[in-house]
Model the fold of this input.
Amino acid sequence: MLKDSFGRVIDYMRISVTDRCNLRCRYCMPDGIERKPMAEILRYEEIAFVCAQAAALGVSRFRITGGEPLVRKDCPVLVAMLKQIPGVRQVSLTTNGVLLAEHLDALTGAGLDAVNVSLDTMDREQYRRITGMDEAERVLASIRQAAGKLPVRINCVVQEGFNEDAPVQLAALAKELPVDVRFIELMPIGAARGLKMVPNTEVLRMLEEVFGPALPDPESRGSGPAVYRRIAGFAGRIGFISAVHEKFCDTCNRLRLTSAGELKPCLCYGDVVPLREILRDPEPGKEERIREKIREAVRIKPKAHCFENTAAVTEKRKMNQIGG
Done:
């Protein structure tokens, strides 16, 4: 079992497989991508090797992210590789949903356990303003298709001046479908530093005004910090990830692996533990060297983030470069 300096059990790893994306979201990469050469991006075999060492130390849940993971060729192959690692209990995926429908059968066939779809609005024009692309209807179709095959969670970031009316529209999906619709407070990373977030307390108020009481639901189905509520008559649930106003750092259970092969202990800070040089070293004994680097990343994991104090945030990269 992996425990950090504050007694937290670390059993969850988020894996970025690419810094590329087919959208240009205003809080992530509105001006395009500063892409790393593919030679600097970990190969699937290297990712699986790191995950195998993490699993041997007690990490049992893995989430594949990006960038947009489905723009990388053969993403389902990685899912299958991770599912074969002893000790792995869950492999899930976070996607913007644009390519989900065409890869859905391959992903479920590989053993994918769940999918999160990022969707900030159901309004076509709002979606275009936020993402730079006209893909809202395609994403909604993917969600409906996936909901019959996998546990689906929809993630929405509410931004002042852009999509304040989106929560009510999106919550209606949880009324119709057995999906979790979750609202994530905007974190001051990269391009999001200059944007204004809407607190989840305000989102909850809006929802209860329209749908009635949203009662706490203690059941957790994911690996992360979402707090769930149920509304009478809803097929699914409403969730809140309040990273800024309700810090959940005392229960943080995760590490991040960037696409370039760095272990990142906390999203807020720039500190990383590099792995790529070890992974590509022909000398024997890589297993224990990688395990020690994982232990090091756990040891230097900070007690808490500082998103409430933007000036203290030391992570300067964009979200797609570090893994969402």
